[in-house]
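Q: What would this complex look like in 3D?
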Amino acid sequence: MLAERLARLAHACWRFTPRIALAPGDSLFLDVSGSIGLFGGERRLLRKVLAELEERGEAGRICLADTPGAAWAGTRAASEPVTILAPDSGLESMSAWPVEALRLDAEDCGLLRELGLDTIGALGGIPPESLQARFGAGTALRLKQAAGQAPEPLDYLPPPRTFKARMEFESLVVLRQAIAAAVAELAVRLCDQLAAAGMGSRRFELRLHRSDGKCVAYGLRTARLIQPAPQLAELLDEKLQAGAPGRERGVGYDAVSLVARDTEDVMAEQADWLSGASAGNLKGDFARLVDRLCSRLGADAVRVPTPEDSYLPERRWRFVSALDGPPPEHRFEAPHEAMRAPLLLLEQAEPVEAAAAAAGGPPAWIRWRRKRLSLRRAQGPRRVLAEWWRGEERGGREYWLVEDEQGRSLCLFRRQPPADEASRWYVQALAA
Amino acid sequence: MTTPDRAASREERGWPLAVLERPGVHEFLGERDANRAAALSLLLCGAASLPGAAERRLVWVQTSAATRRWGMPCGEGLNAIGLNPRNVLFVEPENERELLWALEQALDCPGLLAVVGCLPGAERHYGFTASRRLSLRALRNGSRIFLARGARIREATSAQTRWRVEPAPSAPSGLVWRGFELPGARSWRVGLERAPGWTPGAWNIEWSEHENRLRLAASPERANPVRAAG
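A: Here is my prediction, written as structure tokens for the whole assembly.
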């Protein structure tokens, strides 16, 4: 029962890495050394893994470390459910953890405890030779493995089954309509295969095999895990139209294949934010819209705002692809900030020419985009500390909400402390 | 044509933008940067005044050129007017043709609060045919689309309503700080140029932060609406 659940979770984690192994206790080892970059950094990756588990109704703890042993220990002993051990830190970061975290049998642990060796740190202080002599090879090996001084080969699970449909043409095909018909047929076959196995996929690859041996591939990402064949065919057709294949003279196609990548179990009907819509009958329609937009405009052109840990207005929200799952619920600070937030934010603050400002106040006019704005109203300053840990500007910023004589409102800032009275002003937001 | 009945209900509702609740294409004209920003902020506040604004999704479509020019939605600001940023889908096509396509797709999706489109400064493809396609879809599906566009109109469009928007100085607050008076509520000067069943006119409108809705600004013009310019 437990094994089954673990196997299912392992399968769900397949999109994070193909190197997954079962671990003692109810754990899994994921070798993510190759995929951290793909998921936007370590912490983000770990959170995604946990979110994946949560979606399947499982709670978990997760630790990223240099060695499987250290990672296993982290999930047992670290105080936080999500832990990242500094690279190359060896036993140091684990020294306060109990010896049980080393994957030892209860008997060995009991012995160590009796001798007052409660923590990994205490154990690490013993010379390796005497450690092996006194407590056995098993204990010594686990300690070395956790520290990265002994190899630990993992038994990776076999890759999941591939889902693929292919069609060979008897004679060369040149017309787009014929290709579209073939794609529609492949979509039906692939969807049947997936349905029979109880699987779904969010990533497809369509390959057109040209008569000259070359192959044209089209990748498709979808928001939904399961889609009816006609809709899959429609999305693929959009892709083909955008890519406009086969207009080269004398080039035809002799085969078409369609592969489902990153297949996932559809056991638990997806707690997909796209289908778990807020307004009643929205369900599949919004997901379908996202799919259509993504397939024609590209996944990067269809985004949702996600809150970030930053006090700089332009960093407070990051736009991530709508296919990357639900934006976290954001707790807004109570509107104690007297200054109202703007509606339109410029990605790049624009430097402006400005009148010399009276001590501590905003300028009387600015010249922005070749227009002179006489400022009549102003509110501020709101001071924001510099994010020095990002290694950028020092000091902070001072924001002002200003309104000109015609009622145009803008959000201005200048760096703090101002180098001189004529220090630069920037426009950060419109419709403030 | 205006019946006394309608005039009364308009007075009751307190603001002429009630017409935005109807399905169809609503155009907000704003020339130049500041007016375009005013048009966008007005249409967002208009969307925030609609029933169900806090729960329903909003699809916002603009070209990447428009993003560089007028910026992108700001989560804090949306939240402050009662729109949940989580419900915003931000779509950025490369060009105007793709933008119109994306708007049409969005109009087919039921249950949205509104589709927001920001046309490029120089419109090449939006005209009678494109607006007809949009408005047919909107009316068929009962959805509404708010379009921000430049004020120079190339050809007639089949929009249901058309507003000309300019920023307006906010009402005097009387509070002075470091030589500057504090800004009041967001304010606009809007001219209604087209809305079947409504009399064209011009109003000063402001955003009420307490009520979270648009209302007529407390100014002499409320009692005496004047004709829209242009």
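A: To summarize the key features: The domain at 21-169+184-220 of chain B is CATH 3.40.50.300 (Rossmann fold). Chain B touches chain A through 63 residues (CB under 8 Å).
Q: Very helpful, thank you.
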